[in-house]
């Protein structure tokens, strides 16, 4: 079974803090994604990565950056957290065999 | 511009009855569609998919119907069970998906199956 692991399930941070969300997948997938989920807005794509050191902006990249130094790891960075970044963050990796996105369990971030 | 729309935020169904979740899309280039299910505090999990060469795909209690001319798809769950209570997301892409053909998700429908 594909496993996508997000390092933190729940985080509480203060406005202005730097936040790192880590994601690791174990299936050697090239494509990885970061989404955020908000009520009434569904899943919105923040950033994605084709491969190591490759990254592309999604639909809502403002206030975020990413890092992909190793194939299995894709990190989302909030340089200076703001209250409107309180959300559920979901990492996913994509299987070219099945066309399926595999999601991690999510990281619930609260910014005070 | 919401390219994938789920106009019903919530749906309540009695156990044993049929649940029908609807999804509309605006981009006629979309040719691959998926449904994901999400429980609270968990990541979404893949449920069923359909490509535009088909108009129906079935997997156990779950059937997805695609009407290309109406740009509409629906997910039927028969019979509905309390464990089906979750948020259901419809997603679409041009091509098979991945970074080249990103999945576009709808806003989700919360299904509540009453015992």
Question: What does this protein structure show overall?
Answer:
The complex is a heterodimer of chains A (112) and B (115). Chain A is an all-beta fold and 112 residues long. Chain A is 0% helix and 53% strand. Chain A contains no helices and twelve strands. Chain A has strands at residues 4-6, 10-13, 19-21, 23-25, 31-38, 42-49, 56-57, 65-70, 73-78, 87-94, 101-103, 107-111. In chain A, the strands form three sheets. In chain A, strands 2, 5, 6, 7, 10, 11 and 12 form a seven-stranded mixed sheet that branches. In chain A, strands 3-9-8 form a three-stranded antiparallel sheet, with no helix packed on it. In chain A, strand 10 (87-94) and strand 11 form a beta hairpin. Chain A starts with a strand and ends with a strand. With 115 residues, chain B is an all-beta fold. Chain B is built from no helices and eleven strands. In chain B, strands 2, 4, 5, 9, 10 and 11 form a six-stranded mixed sheet that branches. Chain B has a five-stranded antiparallel sheet with strand order 1-3-8-7-6, with no helix packed on it. Chain B is globular. The N and C termini of chain B lie far apart (38 Å).
Summarize the structure.
The complex is a heterodimer of chains A (112) and B (115). With 112 residues, chain A is mainly beta.
Compute the number of strand runs of chain B.
Answer: 11
Structural class of chain B: mainly beta
Helical percent range of chain A? under 10%
Put simply, the count of helices of chain B is 0
Low-confidence stretches of chain A: none
Shape of chain B: globular
Task: Please render the helix and strand layout as text.
The complex is a heterodimer of chains A (112) and B (115).
Chain A: E1 4-6, E2 10-13, E3 19-21, E4 23-25, E5 31-38, E6 42-49, E7 56-57, E8 65-70, E9 73-78, E10 87-94, E11 101-103, E12 107-111
Parallel strand pairs in A: 2-12
Antiparallel strand pairs in A: 1-4, 3-9, 5-6, 5-10, 6-7, 8-9, 10-11, 10-12
Chain B: E1 4-5, E2 10-14, E3 19-25, E4 32-38, E5 45-51, E6 56-59, E7 62-67, E8 72-77, E9 86-93, E10 104-105, E11 109-114
Parallel strand pairs in B: 2-11
Antiparallel strand pairs in B: 1-3, 3-8, 4-5, 4-9, 6-7, 7-8, 9-10, 9-11
């Amino acid at each position: 079974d594909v496993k996508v692991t997000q390092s933190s399930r729940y985080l509480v941070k203060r406005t202005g803090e730097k936040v790192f969300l880590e994601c690791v997948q174990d299936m050697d997938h090239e494509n990885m994604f970061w989404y955020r989920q908000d009520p009434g807005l569904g899943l919105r794509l923040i950033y994605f990565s084709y491969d190591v050191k490759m990254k592309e902006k999604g639909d809502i990249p403002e206030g975020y950056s990413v890092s992909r130094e190793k194939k299995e790891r894709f990190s989302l960075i909030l340089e200076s957290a703001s209250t409107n970044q309180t959300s559920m963050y979901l990492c996913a990796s994509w299987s070219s065999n099945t066309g399926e996105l595999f999601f991690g369990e999510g990281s619930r971030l609260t910014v005070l | 511009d919401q390219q994938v729309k789920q106009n019903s935020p919530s749906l309540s169904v009695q156990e044993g009855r049929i649940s029908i979740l609807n999804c509309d899309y605006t981009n006629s280039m979309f040719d691959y569609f998926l449904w994901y299910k999400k429980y609270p505090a968990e990541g979404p999990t893949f449920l069923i998919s359909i490509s535009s060469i088909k108009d129906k795909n079935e997997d156990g209690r779950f059937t997805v119907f695609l009407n290309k001319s109406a740009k509409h798809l629906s997910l039927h769950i028969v019979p509905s069970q309390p464990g089906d209570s979750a948020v259901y997301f419809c997603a679409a892409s041009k091509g098979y998906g991945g970074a080249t053909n990103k999945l576009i998700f709808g806003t989700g429908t919360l299904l509540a199956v009453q015992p």
